[in-house]
């Protein structure tokens, strides 16, 4: 699957979480945020955008919906087919190797 997913939150929430999680002061956190591609640009490049500004439950719901979209897509079935084909090849090669050893 060639899908880009961006999970974002508002700037103040991002700043507060970064300070709290990484034990940074506000200036260090701002510098880290400004060293990255701006979220607005990331969101424009994304195929899917999840807003993580709200509650954990609302983020979980958004992730679950996106997961369901991926599962029901053709890409998911194509990936499954490839994995299944590889599994058959591996099992077949293992059987051939086992026969040659006997």
Automatic annotation (TrEMBL):
Pfam families from the UniProt entry: CoaE
Residues spanning the membrane: 82-101
Source organism of this protein record: Holothuria leucospilota (Black long sea cucumber)
Keyword terms: ATP-binding, Kinase, Membrane, Nucleotide-binding, Transferase, Transmembrane, Transmembrane helix
Record-given protein name: Dephospho-CoA kinase domain-containing protein
Taxon lineage: Eukaryota, Metazoa, Echinodermata, Eleutherozoa, Echinozoa
Keyword S-adenosyl-L-methionine in record: no
UniProt cross-references to InterPro entries, sorted A to Z: Depp_CoAkinase (IPR001977), P-loop_NTPase (IPR027417)
CDD domains per record: DPCK
Highest rank taxon of the organism: Eukaryota
The keyword Lipid metabolism belongs to this UniProt entry's keyword annotation: no
Alphabetical GO biological process terms: coenzyme A biosynthetic process
A GO molecular-function annotation: ATP binding
